Known about the structure:
Mean pLDDT: 93
Low-confidence stretches: none
CATH topology of the largest domain: UDP-N-acetylmuramoyl-L-alanine:D-glutamate ligase
Number of strands: 20
CATH architecture of the largest domain: 3-Layer(aba) Sandwich
CATH class of the largest domain: Alpha Beta
Oligomer: single chain
Amino acid sequence: xxLAQFAGKKVAIWGLGREGRAVLELLRQRLPGLCLSVVNDTxxxxxxRASLPEDGSVRLLSGPEAPDALPRFDVVIKSPGISxxxxxxxxxxxxxxxxxxATQIWFAEHPEARTVCVTGTKGxxxxxxxxxxxxxxxxxxxxxxxxxxxxxLDSAPVAAGAVWVIEISSYQAAELDVSPDVAVLLNLxxxxxxxxxxxxxxxxxxxxxxxxxxxxMAVINRxxxxxARFTSVFTHPVWFNDPQGFHVARGFLCERRRRLLPVAxxxxxxxxxxxxxCAALTAVGCLGIDAATCxxxxxxxxxLPHRLFxxxxxxxxxxxxxxxxxTPQSARAAVETFADRPLSILLGGYERNLPYEELGRFLASKxxxxxxxxxxxxxxxxxxxxxxxxxxxxxxxxxxxEAESLTQAVELARQxxxxxxxxxxxxxxxxxxxxxxxxxxxxxxxxAAGFRVDTPGT
Length: 458
C-alpha cells in the first residue's frame, strides 16, 4: 500500500521503536487528518512517549491487552520485532485487517529507487556498510538504511540519484513483496526460531526477498550449503566465493584469475569477513562498477563496532568485542579467526533453545584454552562442551568455567588467559534480559576489560 491509500482508514502503528516513530512522523506529515492509533505491548519508554503529539490526536493503547484491539483497525503497520505468527495477528487477519510494514511502504513509495538489499543470517551490517563505502569511493551517493539503524522512512532529505543500500532482517523479509535491483544472500543457518517458529519457516521468510525479485540480480554464496538448496528461488543468480567470480585463493582476494589484493591488507579479520568482501564486490559489480577501482576502498574499511572489533591489548592480552554474535556459527567463526593464538571465549546469553552440540564438538576439537559461560543459557552451553570433551576423550583443553555475570567472566578471562592470548566476547546468544541490546553488552565488556567505550583501543 502507498500512503495515499491509508486516507479515510483506521490505522494503527504496532510498536513504537525507532522505526515506528519514523512511521508516525511521516503519517502525521503526509496525512494529518488520519485516524491514527499506537499499539504497544508494554508501557512506552520516555523517548517513544515524547514522540506522541500532546493534542491527543493519536490514540495510545499500551499494555499486554492492547493487541486484542487490532481487529478494530483497517490497517496495522507492524514493527519488525513483532512476529507475524502471533495469535493476535492471525485473528486480526482472519477478520480482514491488512498488515504491512515500514519497509513495504517505502518500496511502494519509491518504485524507481536503485536498491541493494542485503540479508543473511550473519554479516549483514558489515556487508551493507562495506557496499555503501565502496559506492561512495566510486563517486556515487549511497544511503545506508534499514535494519542497520537508520529507518527507511526517516524524513531527512536524500540526494537525487542515490543508491539505497538496505539491510534486511528475517523479520523484515517475511513481510516483503519487493523487487530490488540487487539482492544479496550471505548465508543461511538457524536463528530467530522463537519469532519464525521453526527453521524451515525461517529460511522461507528470509528468501521472500528473492521470491519476489522480478528484475535485478541475486548475489548468492556458492559455498553456503543451505543457500544451495534453494537455487530455484533465485531468478538471476550471480555467485561469489566462486572461481568464476570474486573469491579468496592462496592469500589473495581475486576476481576470476585476477589477483586484486592480499588478504593481509584487509582490515576485517576472519574468513567469514573475507566472504563478506567478496559479496560486497559482487554487488557493486552488478551495478556496473569495476572492482579494480574499489581495491583501495576495501583495504581502508575498518569494520563496525561489536563485530570482531579489536579493542586493543592490556597486559599482553588482546581483547575482541564480538557482541553481535547470537548464534553458534558466529561464535565458531570468531574462534577460527584467532586460531593461531591462545584463546578464551565468553559464551552465553538469552535462552532461545538453539542447538549447541555442534559448537561443543568444535570447541572440544580446536586449540581453545578456555570456555567461560554466562547466564542465562551458560550452564547448558558449559555442559554441552564438557560432554563433547568426554566423548572426545579430552581431559584438559578447553577448560570450562561458569561465571554468574559478564563482569565475572571478564575477570576470569583476565586470570586464565596467558600473555599473547586473546579474549573474545562472542556469546552465541542474544543479550535480551541482561542488557538492552548487543551494543550495551559490548560496551559493558569493553569497560570491564579496561577500555573507554567512546574511543575503543585507548
